[in-house]
Amino acid sequence: MQPEKPAAQVIFNAISAAEMANVPKLQQLELLAGFRASTANLDSPQPDQIGVIQREGKRLYRYRLKDWRVYFERVPEGFAIHRIFHRNTLLDFLYRSNLPVAEDEQLGEAKSFWRLIEEGKASQRSD
After folding, report:
1. pTM of the predicted protein model
2. How far apart are CA 105 and CA 93, in angstroms?
3. Domains and CATH numbers, the chain
4. Across residues 79-96, what is the average pLDDT?
5. CA angle 9, 10, 14 (to 5 degrees)
Protein backbone atom coordinates (compact mmCIF):
# COMPACT_ATOMS: atom_id res chain seq x y z
CA MET A 1 0.00 0.00 0.00
CA GLN A 2 1.42 3.36 -1.09
CA PRO A 3 1.31 6.33 1.26
CA GLU A 4 -1.32 8.94 0.42
CA LYS A 5 -0.07 12.07 -1.34
CA PRO A 6 -0.34 15.17 0.84
CA ALA A 7 -3.02 17.63 -0.22
CA ALA A 8 -1.83 20.54 -2.30
CA GLN A 9 -1.34 23.66 -0.24
CA VAL A 10 -3.45 26.73 -1.04
CA ILE A 11 -1.36 29.88 -0.63
CA PHE A 12 -2.99 33.30 -0.39
CA ASN A 13 -1.04 36.51 -0.88
CA ALA A 14 -1.95 39.63 1.13
CA ILE A 15 -4.35 40.93 -1.53
CA SER A 16 -6.18 37.66 -2.13
CA ALA A 17 -6.39 37.01 1.64
CA ALA A 18 -8.03 40.42 2.11
CA GLU A 19 -10.37 39.74 -0.80
CA MET A 20 -11.29 36.36 0.70
CA ALA A 21 -11.94 38.01 4.06
CA ASN A 22 -14.60 40.13 2.34
CA VAL A 23 -16.44 37.01 1.18
CA PRO A 24 -19.21 35.90 3.59
CA LYS A 25 -17.99 33.02 5.81
CA LEU A 26 -20.35 30.35 4.40
CA GLN A 27 -19.34 31.28 0.86
CA GLN A 28 -15.65 31.14 1.88
CA LEU A 29 -16.12 27.53 2.96
CA GLU A 30 -18.03 26.70 -0.22
CA LEU A 31 -15.36 28.38 -2.37
CA LEU A 32 -12.50 26.51 -0.70
CA ALA A 33 -14.25 23.13 -0.80
CA GLY A 34 -15.20 23.55 -4.46
CA PHE A 35 -11.76 24.88 -5.34
CA ARG A 36 -9.99 21.88 -3.83
CA ALA A 37 -12.30 19.43 -5.60
CA SER A 38 -12.13 21.20 -8.96
CA THR A 39 -8.35 21.64 -9.00
CA ALA A 40 -7.65 17.99 -8.23
CA ASN A 41 -6.94 17.39 -11.92
CA LEU A 42 -6.07 20.53 -13.86
CA ASP A 43 -4.92 18.43 -16.81
CA SER A 44 -8.57 17.88 -17.73
CA PRO A 45 -10.41 20.84 -16.21
CA GLN A 46 -14.16 21.28 -16.30
CA PRO A 47 -14.64 24.27 -18.64
CA ASP A 48 -17.67 25.56 -16.74
CA GLN A 49 -15.57 25.91 -13.57
CA ILE A 50 -11.88 26.07 -14.54
CA GLY A 51 -10.54 28.25 -17.32
CA VAL A 52 -7.00 28.78 -18.57
CA ILE A 53 -5.68 32.27 -19.24
CA GLN A 54 -2.44 32.63 -21.19
CA ARG A 55 -0.32 35.53 -22.33
CA GLU A 56 3.35 35.79 -23.25
CA GLY A 57 4.18 32.40 -21.78
CA LYS A 58 2.33 33.02 -18.52
CA ARG A 59 -0.44 30.64 -17.54
CA LEU A 60 -3.12 31.35 -14.96
CA TYR A 61 -6.24 29.46 -14.08
CA ARG A 62 -9.65 30.84 -13.29
CA TYR A 63 -11.92 28.94 -10.93
CA ARG A 64 -15.56 29.96 -11.12
CA LEU A 65 -18.20 29.26 -8.48
CA LYS A 66 -21.53 31.10 -8.59
CA ASP A 67 -20.72 34.82 -8.26
CA TRP A 68 -17.01 34.39 -7.49
CA ARG A 69 -13.86 34.08 -9.59
CA VAL A 70 -10.53 32.89 -8.17
CA TYR A 71 -7.38 33.51 -10.24
CA PHE A 72 -4.47 31.25 -9.38
CA GLU A 73 -1.42 29.43 -10.68
CA ARG A 74 0.28 26.16 -9.96
CA VAL A 75 3.38 26.41 -7.80
CA PRO A 76 5.55 23.58 -6.44
CA GLU A 77 3.78 23.74 -3.05
CA GLY A 78 0.28 23.65 -4.56
CA PHE A 79 -1.71 26.67 -5.71
CA ALA A 80 -0.95 30.38 -5.34
CA ILE A 81 -4.14 32.44 -5.19
CA HIS A 82 -3.56 35.85 -6.76
CA ARG A 83 -7.00 37.45 -6.83
CA ILE A 84 -10.59 36.74 -5.81
CA PHE A 85 -13.27 38.79 -7.54
CA HIS A 86 -17.02 39.03 -7.32
CA ARG A 87 -18.44 38.69 -10.80
CA ASN A 88 -19.76 42.24 -10.76
CA THR A 89 -16.28 43.68 -10.67
CA LEU A 90 -14.07 42.10 -13.31
CA LEU A 91 -16.88 40.73 -15.46
CA ASP A 92 -18.56 44.14 -15.58
CA PHE A 93 -15.38 45.43 -17.16
CA LEU A 94 -15.43 42.65 -19.70
CA TYR A 95 -19.07 43.15 -20.63
CA ARG A 96 -18.61 46.90 -20.96
CA SER A 97 -15.65 46.38 -23.30
CA ASN A 98 -17.83 44.26 -25.68
CA LEU A 99 -14.94 42.15 -26.89
CA PRO A 100 -16.12 39.42 -29.30
CA VAL A 101 -14.08 36.54 -27.85
CA ALA A 102 -14.43 34.14 -24.92
CA GLU A 103 -13.96 35.37 -21.34
CA ASP A 104 -10.56 33.71 -20.80
CA GLU A 105 -9.25 35.04 -24.12
CA GLN A 106 -10.42 38.54 -23.15
CA LEU A 107 -8.58 38.29 -19.85
CA GLY A 108 -5.44 37.04 -21.55
CA GLU A 109 -5.40 40.17 -23.72
CA ALA A 110 -6.39 42.71 -21.06
CA LYS A 111 -3.28 44.46 -19.74
CA SER A 112 -5.22 45.77 -16.74
CA PHE A 113 -6.01 42.18 -15.69
CA TRP A 114 -2.33 41.23 -15.73
CA ARG A 115 -1.49 44.34 -13.66
CA LEU A 116 -3.95 43.11 -11.01
CA ILE A 117 -2.25 39.71 -11.00
CA GLU A 118 1.20 41.28 -10.73
CA GLU A 119 0.01 43.36 -7.75
CA GLY A 120 -1.02 40.11 -6.08
CA LYS A 121 2.32 38.47 -6.79
CA ALA A 122 4.20 41.50 -5.49
CA SER A 123 2.22 41.46 -2.25
CA GLN A 124 3.16 37.80 -1.75
CA ARG A 125 6.87 38.57 -2.03
CA SER A 126 6.70 41.38 0.53
CA ASP A 127 5.05 39.22 3.23
Report:
1. 0.68
2. 14
3. 9-125 (3.30.2310.20)
4. 70
5. 135
